[in-house]
Amino acid sequence: MENNPAYYPPVGFYFSVMVDGESMSFKEVSGISQELGVEDVIEGGENRFIHRLPTNAKHPNLVLKRGILLADSIIAKWCTDTISGDFSTSISPKTITVNLLDEKGTPLISWTFNNAYPVVYRVSDFHSEKNEVVIESMEFAYSYFKRKDKVV
Hints:
eight-stranded antiparallel sheet
């Protein structure tokens, strides 16, 4: 795409989220990031530098935010069951897919988060002086993600 003069970088406000194949609406997605861990190794007798060796990849939590829905929403129930559970039942990981859409609503880039499960559920603060929508924020740990680009 870099050599395609017709290509224009996509906008970040047109996206969709799917949890185990079910489409859900969110106002914000963040945490799509990865970095290679580095371990510092000090060599005895050599004081001019430190060896920096690569370790495993690290990912922050995937964060999804939206206006709060009723408690019977599938994703809110999944969060509650996982986080408030007593571990008498196993955690149920799911696949979360985030699609960046083109002007026709077709996925341009997809990120698939494998073995995701909720680790944080948060509700925004209430303020008597502000007229704002109450936002629920959910964070998910996951094993890894894969990016897939639409062929242009």
